[in-house]
């Protein structure tokens, strides 16, 4: 048996456990009366928003709040209506107008892409070597 460090706290815990067991044995569940349910519903309606001050919601996370922060998709649908998103491919020469920058950018792109190509090639061969059954 372990030593009792906090007798008052342990007594409280023991009493709570016993009370819970007694309630379970008797099958008592606290059912809300009709008056309690109506009071809860009335309290929900009286909730006031911190952001706009209107009743019926408590924060601007609620979609009924006029200050609601919309997602990107909701904003695009609101501003553009039904739309289709797509990507446009253009050449590097048309993207960069200064010729000095084109040469430097092209060199960096070649170095990075060759590094990634080698990395993928090495990873792929190691993967196949590791899992090949001979």
Compile the SSE list and pairings:
Layout: H1 7-26, H2 34-45, H3 72-80, H4 92-95, H5 99-131
Describe the structure.
The structure is a single chain. This protein is mostly helical and 134 residues long. The chain is flat and about 80 Å long. The protein has two domains: 34-85, no CATH class; 87-129. The model has no long low-confidence stretch (mean pLDDT 81). Helix content is 58%, strand content 0%.
Number of domain units: 2
Q: Return the structural class.
A: mainly alpha
Strand residue content: under 5%
State Rg: 33 Å
Q: List unreliable stretches of 5+ residues.
A: none
Helix content: 55-70%
Task: Please give the count of helices.
Answer: 5
Order of helices and strands: HHHHH
- Principal-axes geometry comes out as flat
- Describe the biggest sheet? none
Return the average pLDDT rounded to an integer. 81
Record field, number of beta strands: 0
Distance between the termini: 61 Å
């Amino acid at each position: 048996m372990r030593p009792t460090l906090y007798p008052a706290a342990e007594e409280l815990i023991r009493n709570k456990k016993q009370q819970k067991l007694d309630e379970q044995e008797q099958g008592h569940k606290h059912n809300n009366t009709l008056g309690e349910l109506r009071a809860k519903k009335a309290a929900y309606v009286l909730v006031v928003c911190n952001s706009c001050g209107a009743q019926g919601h408590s924060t601007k996370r609620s979609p009924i709040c006029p200050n609601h922060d919309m997602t990107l998709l909701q904003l695009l649908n609101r501003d553009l209506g039904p739309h289709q998103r797509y990507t446009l491919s253009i050449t590097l020469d048309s993207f960069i107008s200064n010729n000095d920058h084109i040469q430097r950018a092209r060199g960096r792109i070649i170095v990075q892409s060759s590094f990634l190509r080698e990395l993928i090639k090495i990873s792929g061969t190691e993967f196949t070597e590791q899992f090949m059954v001979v």
